């Protein structure tokens, strides 16, 4: 917020540095007094853009109140250069006109209003506020009313407020639902002990015009009892994700800020909000130079600011080394090279499309130059520990680390670059840093800056070259030698030697590319917990590649994919095998949405259906469905492997993917079948998902249990070139659907299908009429079939038939039952299951007393006993507890065992579809298993699994016998 006493924006540096008595305009060098006297907007205009498209400017003025000639001229010019700001003027015309009397007061009022906004109205209100702040700061920037630091300060202040209010709302919702242990409503203001640390430009108070906000979210675990830790962490993780969604989602009202949570410790394997103690441990043992540099700008911005300050205090030894840390120079240089390599920003300077942030002579060069010097000596001299780039340059000059002349030049260039960056982003609110490529758009930029185009281009080139010259001299690059790295880490030469015989390295071009990426590859292997294991896993991946040039070129252009590859091959052989045979999946990784939020079933079905409709060839439809589905399954697996989602979320995603696949594919199969035999007679057919699919929870290797029910509605034959009797029609249509899913094609098969749960099992028809289905379920079905029906759910086909099937299911669940008989049947089933197949070992999470199958069987029995319609194992136990069939303690023991078994099962099926043996799964797999189960060691986890399943088994037996005797 602005300090109304002097209108100076909050400073970002810890030492309380303030802007001097005057500031230089970065474009024309004019002296602008600071701080400004409080006066109207018009009286403070110091520069004037030129409308690139005067007609657009005129259209904007027609929608705005008259604000006087000087302000009207500025708005005309701004709208004539920026379609985005013109659009904001149309939406916020009345507000911006009123703000002209006192822009700082308008900002303060907007902030105050938002603080009083109800949580259910906050998302839209924040978007409206963002529009207003964006418009005001944009026009104030263009007119010189606010200088750079005030513009970035206003944007940062709003980001702080938005994050805090979103966090307050989402934590408040958790508290209201009783999900945050021990918290009361008043605790929402400090986010229940959680803090969002602002990183990067947000931390320094330097947000650019279309900036993401980089956050690290942590919670103070000392505020919770040990037994409440896991519940608290889960609550904070949910709140963080919802906060991010509230800010990032694009709605009809726009968006607030794109949020990036990936700067946290080891984001591949850690939740989006983690305990401060865990973060401290990570930085103490594994923290890297780039993370030290990132924490120079870190600042508590939302939530529990005191807890955040305490955390940063404990982290000072990590960030600020006691000795002069000249090793940071090489690390920073390597970071610069990786950025250039990743973004393709090497080579000679070409203004067209030049990246003014990351490219030669750009903003990042100045920031790295400043931060690296701070890291070198900041451990000894606390005065160097300032957050902002300009204050950092000033204190470095004051302390003699750089000359005043260099500090002055880089400060001037930094302000100029940032101003140009803002204009580039203001055109369409794009998070871009690239200068225009076309002469026309370069002319637009020149107009936006009120400059002659030729003069602007000459000045840009001169400034970029001077920044490059001033900063490049500081870094001394040494080319990485893969052989030296090989020798240093002592990789097995026999393994590396045999790579030359693999198909991927047949061509000299592939070998040449591989030699260039070896340094990063070996470096990532060395960082893994067990480099030798990771090397063997990588060897398996490379041996499976049919060719190398395309994939290796992709790795060279996108080095971050190497990091992902090492993660995968070191953890999940099944995923590694998949990518060795489907390397094109990496295209999806670099496409920009691979790590986005899960889109949901409806969006998935719509996407696949559109693809299938667009392809007229049926075989292509089937193959394309396989390719599409496997890419999404790979995505779910990687998200689970990297800790972006947990086992429960992965299970839901796998189930939604299967549903979407069936729902989009069935119409294509039916249409192909209809070409020969005519449309479906009567009302059509619906596909029921049974078992885990019906319950909406699958693992990475789940089969699909399906039943097909149709309603011919009195129609005896289909109408086609080769008509079929209705019963035969639906039987053959079902077989066609099963073939479409299970057939082995170039892209493999989609799923294995099991239809044994249909009426009369394998003796019955593959498709059942609605009448037969109703009669059988109401009069002939056995108890086990009613247990299975409790989880049935329509996943594809006719919605009308699905409604009737659901009515049958509901009627079956409502049938009165003799409790003793029901539970006696279940007990006998349990004994038969145990006799037929025992657990495959102590790590078998599915089969055995007190494990998944056992607990789910009991839950289904309780659903029948209580006449509930839930399909969820968890909800079935909760309903039974409410009905008095389970004691609270029994319910908790069952849920504890079920949750742990499910976690183990999900990890097992992701890593391998064979029997789980942690000793054979590799270090990466073991680490994932322990992370997901929240246990420190395998022996501890094994003991816990044995303990909770034994307790659950006793509960199952007790509940069964108690109800048999009832």
UniProtKB/TrEMBL annotation:
Pfam families: GlnD_UR_UTase, GlnE
Keyword line: ATP-binding, Ligase, Magnesium, Multifunctional enzyme, Nucleotide-binding, Nucleotidyltransferase, Transferase
Protein's gene: glnE
The Glutamate-ammonia ligase adenylyltransferase repeated domain, residue ranges: 76-313, 564-803
Domain PII-uridylyltransferase/Glutamine-synthetase adenylyltransferase: 334-475
Organism: Thalassovita mediterranea
InterPro entries: GlnE, GlnE_rpt_dom, NT_sf, PII_UdlTrfase/GS_AdlTrfase
EC code: 2.7.7.42
Gene Ontology CC terms: cytosol
GO molecular function, a single term: ligase activity
Highest rank taxon of the organism: Bacteria
A Gene Ontology BP annotation from the UniProt entry: regulation of glutamine family amino acid metabolic process
Name of protein: Glutamate-ammonia-ligase adenylyltransferase
């Amino acid at each position: 917020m602005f300090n109304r006493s002097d209108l100076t924006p909050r400073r970002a540096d810890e030492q309380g540095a303030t802007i001097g008595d005057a500031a230089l305009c970065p474009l024309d060098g004019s002296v602008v007094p600071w701080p400004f006297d409080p006066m109207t907007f018009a009286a403070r205009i110091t520069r004037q853009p030129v409308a690139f498209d005067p007609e657009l400017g005129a259209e904007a003025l027609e929608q705005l109140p008259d604000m006087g000639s000087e302000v009207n001229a500025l708005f005309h010019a701004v709208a004539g250069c920026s379609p985005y700001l013109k659009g904001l003027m149309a939406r916020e015309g009345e507000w911006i006109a009123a703000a002209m009397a006192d822009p700082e007061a308008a900002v303060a009022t907007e902030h105050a209003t938002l603080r009083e906004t109800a949580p259910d109205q906050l998302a839209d209100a924040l978007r409206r506020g963002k529009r207003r702040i964006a418009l005001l700061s944009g026009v104030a920037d263009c007119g010189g009313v606010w200088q750079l630091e005030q513009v970035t300060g206003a944007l940062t202040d709003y980001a702080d407020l938005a994050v805090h209010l979103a966090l307050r709302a989402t934590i408040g919702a958790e508290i209201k639902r009783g999900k945050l242990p021990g918290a009361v409503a008043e605790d929402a203001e400090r986010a229940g002990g959680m803090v969002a640390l602002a990183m990067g430009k947000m931390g320094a108070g330097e947000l650019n015009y279309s900036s993401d906000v980089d956050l690290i979210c942590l919670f103070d675990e000392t505020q919770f009892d040990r037994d409440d830790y896991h519940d608290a962490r889960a609550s904070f993780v949910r709140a963080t994700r919802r906060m991010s969604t509230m800010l990032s989602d694009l709605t009809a009202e726009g968006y607030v800020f794109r949020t990036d949570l990936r700067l946290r410790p080891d984001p591949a394997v850690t939740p989006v909000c983690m305990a401060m103690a865990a973060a401290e441990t990570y930085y103490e043992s594994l923290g890297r130079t780039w993370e030290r540099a990132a924490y120079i700008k870190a600042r508590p911005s939302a939530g529990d600011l005191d807890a955040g300050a305490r955390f940063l205090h404990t982290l000072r030894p990590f960030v600020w080394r006691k000795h002069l840390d000249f090793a940071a120079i090489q690390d920073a240089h390597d970071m610069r090279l990786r950025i250039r390599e990743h973004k393709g920003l090497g080579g000679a300077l070409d203004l067209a499309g030049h990246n003014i942030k990351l490219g030669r002579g750009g903003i990042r060069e100045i920031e790295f130059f400043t931060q690296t010097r701070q890291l070198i000596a900041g451990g000894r001299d606390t005065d160097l520990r300032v957050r902002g780039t300009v204050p950092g340059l000033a204190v470095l000059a004051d302390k003699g680390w750089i000359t005043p002349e260099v500090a002055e030049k880089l400060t001037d260039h930094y302000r100029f670059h940032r101003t140009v960056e803002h204009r580039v982003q203001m055109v369409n609110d794009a998070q871009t840093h690239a200068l225009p490529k076309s002469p026309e758009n370069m002319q637009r930029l020149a107009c936006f800056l009120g400059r002659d185009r030729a003069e602007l281009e000459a000045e840009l080139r001169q400034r970029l070259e001077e920044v490059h010259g001033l900063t490049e001299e500081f870094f001394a690059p040494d080319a990485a030698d893969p052989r030296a790295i090989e020798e240093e880490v002592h990789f097995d030469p026999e393994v590396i030697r045999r790579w030359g015989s693999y198909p991927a390295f047949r061509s000299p071009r592939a070998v040449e590319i591989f030699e260039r990426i070896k340094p990063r590859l070996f470096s990532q292997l060395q960082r893994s917990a067990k480099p030798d294991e990771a090397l063997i896993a990588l060897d398996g991946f490379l041996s499976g590649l049919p060719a190398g040039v395309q994939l290796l070129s992709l790795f060279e252009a996108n080095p971050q994919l190497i990091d992902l590859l090492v993660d995968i091959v070191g953890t999940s052989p099944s995923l590694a095998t998949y990518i060795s045979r489907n390397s094109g999946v990496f295209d999806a990784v670099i496409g920009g949405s691979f790590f986005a939020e899960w889109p949901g079933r409806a969006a998935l079905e719509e996407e696949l259906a559109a693809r299938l409709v667009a392809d007229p060839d049926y075989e292509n439809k089937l193959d394309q469905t396989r390719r599409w589905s496997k890419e999404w399954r790979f995505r779910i697996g990687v998200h689970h492997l990297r800790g972006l989602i947990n086992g429960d979320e992965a299970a839901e995603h796998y189930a939604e993917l299967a549903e979407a696949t069936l729902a989009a594919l069935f119409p294509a199969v039916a249409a192909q079948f209809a070409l020969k035999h005519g449309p479906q007679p009567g009302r059509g057919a619906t596909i029921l998902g049974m078992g885990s699919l019906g319950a909406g929870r699958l693992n990475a290797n789940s089969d699909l249990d399906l039943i097909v029910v149709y309603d011919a509605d009195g129609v005896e034959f289909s109408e086609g070139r080769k008509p079929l009797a209705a019963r035969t029609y639906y039987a053959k249509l079902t077989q066609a659907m099963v073939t479409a899913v299970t057939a082995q094609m170039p892209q493999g098969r989609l799923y294995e299908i099991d239809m044994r749960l249909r009426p009369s099992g394998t003796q019955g028809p593959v498709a059942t009429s609605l009448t037969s289905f109703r009669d059988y379920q109401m009069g002939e079905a056995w108890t086990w079939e009613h247990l299975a029906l409790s989880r049935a759910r329509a996943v594809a086909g006719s919605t009308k038939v699905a409604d009737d099937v659901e009515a049958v299911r509901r009627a079956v669940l409502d049938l009165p039952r003799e409790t003793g008989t029901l539970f006696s049947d279940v007990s006998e089933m349990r004994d038969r299951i145990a006799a037929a197949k025992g657990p495959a070992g102590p790590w078998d999470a599915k089969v055995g007393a007190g494990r998944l199958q056992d607990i789910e069987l009991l839950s289904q029995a309780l659903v029948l006993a209580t006449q509930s319609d839930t399909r969820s194992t968890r909800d079935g136990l909760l309903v039974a507890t409410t009905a008095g069939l389970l004691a609270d303690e029994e319910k908790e023991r069952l849920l504890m065992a079920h949750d742990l078994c499910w976690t183990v099962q999900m990890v097992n099926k992701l890593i391998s579809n064979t029997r789980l043996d942690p000793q054979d799964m590799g270090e990466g797999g073991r680490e994932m298993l322990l992370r997901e189960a929240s246990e420190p060691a395998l022996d501890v986890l094994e003991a816990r699994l044995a303990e909770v399943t034994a307790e659950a088994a006793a509960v199952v037996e007790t509940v069964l016998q108690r109800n048999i005797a009832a």
